[in-house]
Amino acid sequence: MQVLDVLAATRIGVFCKLGNFHVDPTEPVDRAIITHAHSDHARAGHNYVLATQETIDLMRLRYGDDFAASAQSVAYGESLRLNETAVTLHPAGHVLGSAQVLIEVNGLRTVASGDYKNIRDPTCAAFEPLACELFITEATFGLPIFRHGVPELEIEKLLRSVELFPERAHLIGAYRLGKAQRLIALLREAGYDRPIYLHGAMEKVTRYYQARGIELGVVQPVGALHKTELAGSITLCPPESLHEIWSRRFPDPVTSIASGWMRVRARARQHRVQLPLVLSDHADWEGLTHTIHTTGASEVWVTHGREDALVHWSVQQGLRAHPLDIMGYGDEDDANPAIAGD
Ligand SMILES: [Zn+2]
Ligand SMILES: [Zn+2]
Fold this sequence. Notes:
Radius of gyration: 20 Å
Number of helices: 8
Bound molecules: zinc ion
Order of helices and strands: HEEEEEHEEEEEEHEHEHEEEHEHEHE
Distance between the termini: 40 Å
Structural class: alpha/beta
């Protein structure tokens, strides 16, 4: 059994021939396995969706009850037969409910990672390394210059700024699914116990995280709070709202974005960010290359970002490696902090 007997790379995503399903297809298909609920991976309109319960719930929150003709949830590690294949989902450590897809046929193991990070995140299950022959990896931060650093130090930086400017508001642009909730959880771990305010666009998903038992403390919509009440406060909003009329309610806001791209100074400048916070839900270069090693894969398919450098690195390691040409991926969150809408 060869990899290409099992899987094909198509323009709309990876297709499993022997299982008759796509992984994260960018167009409506008959059967789709969805790795996580970010909108570039989780599109509406499939006939059948298989995903974790959280991903299905989050798709329903985003698209409504008719997001797919039918949907089936599966727990991490629970094996399911799809035609000639055995499929299991395993934690990807990216956002709540995010999963890697392990496809097994006659002893051949292939893994589609979806988006992932291999560092701790208090808001989702930890990334689980899986041994496989073929590893399909994302490469959002697929360049050696990308090193995300230590999240706790970024939180410290934020809290120091809040202490330093008690008369100003801190306004932090963060993607509404995953990043916002992780930022809140990290602030709580650092001992910040005051209410944290939310832009209305973030409320539904944040309440869902809380309903799934993620501890976020007191979180409330910024609603009609008065300027004077917002002095010294922290508010999270979609990055594009930082400079909208909406932001005028805040007293002399310190503007911030939490993103892996904040490592790039030009990006922070471009978004007029005063306090860049380097916080990513994707593996950095070190994380990507370490993970590829850990899987023991002899073949790597690279998608979703800077494919070339990671393909080149893989070939240097003696692996077979190809970039995939899939149209339509690009994390709304980290790939472009200017876009956070759905
Ligand atoms: Zn994602
Ligand atoms: Zn993505």
